[in-house]
Design goal:
Number of domains: 1
Keywords: Signal
Number of strands: 17
CATH architecture: Beta Barrel
Largest sheet: 14 strands, antiparallel, barrel
Structural class: mainly beta
Order of helices and strands: HHHEEEEEEEEHEEEEEEEEE
Protein name: Long-chain fatty acid transport protein
Radius of gyration: 23 Å
Helix content: 10-25%
Strand content: over 45%
Number of helices: 4
Length: 364
Amino acid sequence: MCIFVKKLRLRLYITTLFCVLTSSLFSQTVRKYSNEFMNIGVDAAALGMSSAVTSHTGDVNSGYWNPAGLLKLEDNQLSLMHSSYFANIANYDYAAFAMPLDDNSAVGISLIRFAVDDILNTTQLIDADGNINYDRISLFSTADYGLTFSYARSLPVQGLNYGVNAKVIRRVIGDFASSWGFGLDVGIQFETDNGWEFGVMARDITTTFNAWAINEEAFATISDAVEGQNQELPESTEITIPKLQIGMSKLVDFNYDYTLLTSVNLNVRFEENNDLISTSFASINPALGFEFGYIDMVYLRGGLGNFQNEEQFGNEELTFQPSFGLGFKYNGIQIDYAFTDIGDQSGALYSNVFSLKLDFSIFR
């Protein structure tokens, strides 16, 4: 009997927690920002450098980091990545393909999926008469999808390229709600004669607009599920505000066999938050990264990013997110690994990330 009571309390707690979280989601009005799954990042090589790659990215993953970098492609490329978050509860997957069209243009396409699958829906566990019926429990998934089409082209100025992304966002919360969103990114890269590289990436330049469709019948089953927490139908729009990333990098060769790539990014959000530099107009968060390479085959990477001023027991402390990565490339196949928060130094998402990149030159 005691075991049954404990299980019942646990299920009731899960039911209450689910109702509160869902009610919180549905109680939002027009948001200043959304689609944060599109900001996690892709490619273990880039994440190992704390995402400080805006200026020098130059492969299939440039469609995400800066589409102007697609101009550096010499052949078709394919990229795949997987990582898990929240003790493997959430899965984050990414696939991309890019190809040069000619000497002056290139295209790419990529897909991101961030999802929690097989969530227990316990909103109907207790019927109107107070009876518990476990047959009324069902499963649902919540998933976010980001499909990006990229185009890059060189400009008449030597070393100057630009790229454009068109994004389609699809978000699904079981049968409760779903949305479609659309947005644009623009990026540029410039390389000087002495090897310095500069890049700017403007994300969601027109603001990315999400329109939600809410299942009112499903909403009615949870809107009064928690006593005193009745909810009204929310506004059905979200807006993702623009972001700006500015980068600079330099690659140095040593004795023909060794290389050292150093880079820095300034990530700008047009809002006030806990970033290292924060004003009412914008907040700036720096990121630093390096990549040590041997004979263009083995790579060691590291970085620091996500600097935040956080309140800790009444005192403000500076936290940061250190990253570490390894890479191996041979005959057109590259495998990369990154751990994105060494020592759990920040409150950000951290994970073991693996990615694979395949250059189609291997088939020639």
